[in-house]
Design goal:
Two copies of one chain form a homodimer. Chain A folds into two domains: 8-150, 60s Ribosomal Protein L30, Chain: A; 166-323, Phosphoribosyl-aminoimidazole Synthetase, Chain A, domain 2 (Alpha-Beta Complex). The longest helix of chain A is centred in the first third of the chain and has 18 residues, at 103-120. Chain A is an alpha+beta fold and 336 residues long. Chain A starts with 14 loop residues before the first helix and ends in a 13-residue tail after the last strand. In chain A, strands 9-11-8-12-10-13-14 form a seven-stranded mixed sheet. A four-stranded mixed sheet of chain A has the order 2-7-5-6. Chain A has a two-stranded antiparallel ribbon with strand order 3-4. Chain A has helices at 15-29, 32-35, 69-82, 103-120, 175-185, 201-210, 224-236, 251-260, 282-290; strands at residues 41-45, 48-57, 63-64, 67-68, 87-98, 123-132, 140-150, 166-169, 216-218, 239-243, 274-277, 299-305, 312-315, 321-323. Strand 1 of chain A pairs antiparallel with strand 2 of chain B.
Chain lengths: 336, 336
Amino acid sequence: MEYETIQLAHGSGGRLSAELVSRFFLPRFGNETLNRLEDQAVVDFPQGRLALTTDSFVVDPLFFPGGDIGDLAINGTVNDVCMSGATPLYLAAAFIIEEGLPMVTLHRILLSMEKAAKSAGVQIVTGDTKVVNRGCCDKLFITTTGVGRVPAEANISAANLQAGDTIILSGSIGDHGMAILTSREGLSFASRVQSDTAALNGLVARMLQASPIIHAMRDPTRGGLATTLNEFATASGVGIVLQEAAIPVRPEVRGACEVLGIDPMYVANEGKLVAVVPGEVAGTVVAAMRSHPLGREAAIIGEVVAENRGMVVMRNALGAQRIVDMPVGEQLPRIC
Amino acid sequence: MEYETIQLAHGSGGRLSAELVSRFFLPRFGNETLNRLEDQAVVDFPQGRLALTTDSFVVDPLFFPGGDIGDLAINGTVNDVCMSGATPLYLAAAFIIEEGLPMVTLHRILLSMEKAAKSAGVQIVTGDTKVVNRGCCDKLFITTTGVGRVPAEANISAANLQAGDTIILSGSIGDHGMAILTSREGLSFASRVQSDTAALNGLVARMLQASPIIHAMRDPTRGGLATTLNEFATASGVGIVLQEAAIPVRPEVRGACEVLGIDPMYVANEGKLVAVVPGEVAGTVVAAMRSHPLGREAAIIGEVVAENRGMVVMRNALGAQRIVDMPVGEQLPRIC
């Protein structure tokens, strides 16, 4: 019997669970390890340090301009792995599905995950599927966990910023969050806003080739660039000074932010990174980034200073300064 | 400001997220790696093979006789790692929390996770928290991912069964599933039924000391022992013959199953394992298991045969036979 929607029995561990895996998951993600259908993947791992990261994706809506929950779940976890300097190797994917989800919806999302995983060069080697009763979750949540190998020389941490370091941003900010918000609210004036969801491991590899020394690196997702830089400043006990004019914001994103009264500094990104490097290698790193499709708009946006410890200060074109604080309240729930 | 319940802003990545982590998560799970609060954990890993497993826990109710979603999420993932013969080392934990969850509830569950992780000897090294609007998930879902090191000599797989092998069960079946079901339905006659949730890595280590050769091993969770053995028979292309009288079922579990018309062979366990070993080492392995608190009732329950490929057959005390098939429909949703 064929079902057009997810049934509770698809999560029971019985025959329907097995069919769901063999008809939907394996054709998309199948590889030697996953195909064994053991309760765990056993994979080779080279000696050294391992990077491990996990993220639950609960984005609403499931499909949005520029992406969907599927590629977001792959790219987000690949990015968290590679921000340590690690090469992402393996992913685990756990699905919580609401009873009644159309099979075609699941299929579309799995196709998108397949494409994103191939593009990032990672294998999904293990997974899990749970089905909950109608009304007990909102359509679909995906938790992805990533494993990567950290090169011996990498020492990248939010606590490593030093006065004199340069802050580099890989491209425009606010795209993902505004794509979600405007599509959720049906704001037609902002229809051109697209999520920037992308896997950054290729860009990171190019940066590390240019300079093995990167002090700190993160993808500014929830809470936006403001939150990431505040975390850096706090963890390292330094100040950060930004040049507002140097931070790229797409016109359509800026327009939507202005209408909605939102500061793009606090809006989530899903395909951007901010790196902190010694001032003397900044030019080399930016040049390397610009040679990669995901870093074409890379720019130096500020510097690390010894003053104003734990604070992020923004300077505008006229020289006026304001403090960019951590966000206190909720801006955009279920953005990723 | 102190909140008594989870707010959407606790998941925003801003100040309230940081407070939730520092006041609730770090005091419970804190270790050198987690305390760094990077977006990924970087940990040492010895050369060799790595076991990776992930599971989402959506159990309803959150608290049940014998355990809660917290220890279940730790033990379930530790068990999936160690069933490969691996030593569990690191865990990642991702939380999807419904807006309005009382902080005291979260705190109780985190305490339980802390205790279970310590007891199993694993560290939670990275995590994630998402908050979804009221009505968009049912209180709390936890996805745990486990990483372990597989010893070079281990070769444990559902596909490794051979005719002549012996099937060993570590203890009574049906406890967890019936504890959930009877507590959910408020069946007071079954009040003594307790979940068997437990971490089995200590038991597995003792088994591997007794015999480095174990052909297959799994914890029969969703779908129960019947499903696990059917998966073994199918993956290895062999038949399995069970002796019904040898399979331990607690009287209170048997009683509840009879009243509800449920076969304990299909009911989930969360602290039991089934192992398939060469006939000649079975006695040694059972003796080793019985020396461990979680294996005191270990018993030989059947054998692997060349006939009836892909099938599991149950023999009762009178010699009558019946086929134990894969479950088709949903028996107990949200059991783990």
